[in-house]
Amino acid sequence: MRILGQIHHPQIKITLFTHNDKLSVKFEKGQAEIILKFKEDQSVVMENLTQEMEKTQFASIVKQLDHLLIYRNQLEPLPPQDPEFLDII
What does residue 78 show for φ and ψ, rounded to 5 degrees? Predict the structure, then answer.
């Protein structure tokens, strides 16, 4: 797998990869990620990604990542609290 580069975004990390003639685009926010894989002509996909960034700033992907983070946090138990330690406010 080879990293082609990144697309700058103020809220999420977007990384472009190539592997076995496929383009993968990974969107990350916190501990959630979405990976899209494309077999199509990479130059067409890259152009469409640029247009999407200019139009919507990947709003639907950001919203989906937010939902994934909420779901993830529901699955992870809170760390146990030691009653001997005072809560610092």
Answer: -70, 145
Predicted TM-score (pTM) of the model is 0.79
Does residue 83 belong to any structural domain of this protein? Answer: no
88 assigned to some structural domain: no
Taking phi over 0 as left and psi of -120 to 50 as alpha, with beta for the rest, 20 belongs to left
* Domain limits for position 38: 2-75
Closest residue by Cα to residue 22 from 4, 40, 8, 44: 40
Q: Which of 9, 7, 6, 16 is nearest to 57 (CA)?
A: 9
Q: How many domains does the chain have?
A: 1
Over residues 24-59, the pLDDT tens digits come to 999 999 999 999 999 877 888 888 988 888 889 899
